[in-house]
Amino acid sequence: MSVYVIAEAGVNHNGKLKLALKLCEEAKNAGADAVKFQTWKTELVITRGTKKAGYQNSCTDPNEDQFEMLKKLELSYNDFKIIKSYCDDIGIDFLSTADEIDSLDFLLELGIPIIKIGSGDITNIPYLTYIGKQRLPIILSTGMSCLGDIEKAIDILNTENKHDITLLHCTTNYPCPMNEVNLRAMQTLKHAFKYDIGYSDHTAGIDIPIAAAAMGACVIEKHFTLDTNMEGPDHRASLNPTEFERMVHGIRNIEEALGDGIKRPNKSETVISEVVLKRIVASKNIKKGEILCKDNMSVKRCSYGINASLWNIVSGHIAPKDFDTDEPILL
User: Fold this and answer.
1) pLDDT at 166 over 70
2) Partner residues linked to 36 by β-bridges
3) 196-223 residue pLDDT tens
4) Would you call 313 exposed, middle or buried from its count of C-beta atoms within 10 A (0-12, 13-18, 19+)?
């Protein structure tokens, strides 16, 4: 199964439809399978006066609160209808994380193929209960949580319908330092819950998503921007189109390199083995009728002859003819 690569546009449109459409186009050009946004009504998800996270203060107006920041980044439902239509036209999946039930209902009517639950809602029991009544596959990010939180969320989601769930390991820090990545936790999720696993990345660069693909991630989500120097909370932890394309290329290379897991010579090795694997040859001149043994045989690379793996079978036979030094032994 091919790794499903999501370009997390998130709020990197800065509240502008034109930028959102450009993000869709560039995500498609970079090789992403899907472009994902965030859909919300600010008044339904946050109270006025809520402080911003440290990373948000460092790249947005420090005098505004989180409510004010999100309100400036909010796209309308009509904007998302235009974005969805554009994604359909250019051939890339449109996804969006809803942050409250009204926006989820809108996205369901819009025809999203997957419900994406952000890390911030993994303990949101009313919201998870509502999602559990739907019948779509779910991608659940697991930042800021432990196994107990995840188990409870899964139980709630599966109360009424058994869902196809993919669990994304995630560290909610922007950008995430390497010593907080803990990629092995992704495999812990696989072992604990027996669901497909993936990775939502907030590190700088492309190394960690590619490593996650090598470790079995079925889904890779990576923040995506047109320019990392733009003003906004997530641009600095995002890849620009050129970087994102390099990441996708690396992931596809890893996919191909992983293979099917069966240990066997491939076609090219079979050809090469003809001149690389060792064969049994005469270590000195041998007369017809002599006993073939370690005193008159050796193993060397040779273009033809008996493979060295048959040494114990050949040893003890009588030489059927004269052999010159380095001549392949043939019985």
Assistant:
1) yes
2) 8, 95
3) 999 999 999 999 999 999 999 999 999 9
4) exposed
- Residue 208, classed as helix, strand or coil, is helix
Give the model confidence (pLDDT) of 40-84 as tens digits.
999 999 999 998 877 777 677 788 899 999 999 999 999 999 999
Alpha carbons 124 and 11: distance in angstroms, whole number: 22
What is the Cα–Cα distance from 137 to 113, expressed in whole angstroms?
7
Residue 231: band (very low, low, confident or very high) from pLDDT cuts 50, 70, 90: confident
Tens digit of pLDDT for each residue in 287-307? Answer: 999 999 999 999 999 999 999
Do 33 and 8 contact (CB within 8 A), yes or no? no
- C-beta of residue 187 within 8 angstroms of C-beta of residue 194: no
Judge residue 130's burial from the number of C-beta atoms within 10 Å of its C-beta, 0-12 exposed, 13-18 middle, 19 or more buried.
middle
DSSP state string for 104-125: HHHHHHHT-SSEEE-GGGTT-H
* Pairing between β-strand 219-223 and β-strand 196-201 as defined by DSSP bridges: parallel
pLDDT in tens, 82-102: 999 999 999 999 999 999 999
Tell me if the bond preceding 328 is cis, omega within 30° of 0.
no
Residues 6 or more apart whose Cβ sits within 8 Å of residue 139: 114, 115, 116, 117, 165, 166, 168, 198, 219, 221
Cβ(175)–Cβ(236) below 8 Å: yes
Q: How far apart are CA 116 and CA 166, in angstroms?
A: 10
CA distance 190 to 187: 5
Residue 316, phi then psi, degrees to nearest 5: 100, -15
The C-alpha atoms of residue 323 and residue 283 are separated, in whole angstroms, by: 9
pLDDT of res. 58: 67
Whole-number Å distance between alpha carbons of 277 and 309: 10
State which H helix or E strand residue 243 sits in: helix 241-258
Mean pLDDT over residues 184-199, rounded?
Answer: 98
Which comes out higher in pLDDT, residue 30 or 230? 30
